[in-house]
Amino acid sequence: MDRWSDLDLRITLARPVQVSELVAAPLWAWQESVGEDGQRLRLVFADGRRVDAIVSVSRIALPEPSADNAIRFDGALAAARLGRGNDLIGVHLVLGILREALVQAMLLADRDERSAHHRHGSPFDARAADVTAVLNAASGPQLAMEACRIYGEWRRELEPAYTPDWTALAEIIGPE
Question: Does the reported pTM lie above 0.90?
Fold first, then answer.
């Protein structure tokens, strides 16, 4: 319908298949649930395409998710919602990402202070202002990118082996 739309599919499979057997593009993030009507998949591909599918009779097997799969998925969904002007849902999703970013900052404070109990502030308290600045920015898809960027920076600071990847989110948002 528009650049913010996903593709909705109903798939009936005679046997289990790997997602790579159906689509050549690599997955970037997803949600999966199982209900009475079958396996429900909400897929985001590395090139920014999004597909919602109900799979019946058998199932689609997915690869091992990335460590930040939920953040990636929420970022993609937030960008699409904000792109359509659905600020209520978009900002709700962005708040969840920023909450997880603040968790990373709290874990950093715990690590540096060598305690999970903080009677007084720490240098990490300034990060609350970073989150507030994101929330004070103009509403739009870029809000999702900024939330993800902060999450990724703080998580990488906590876990040096973690490498944030917002490529599909950038594809969804496109040029401003």
Answer: yes
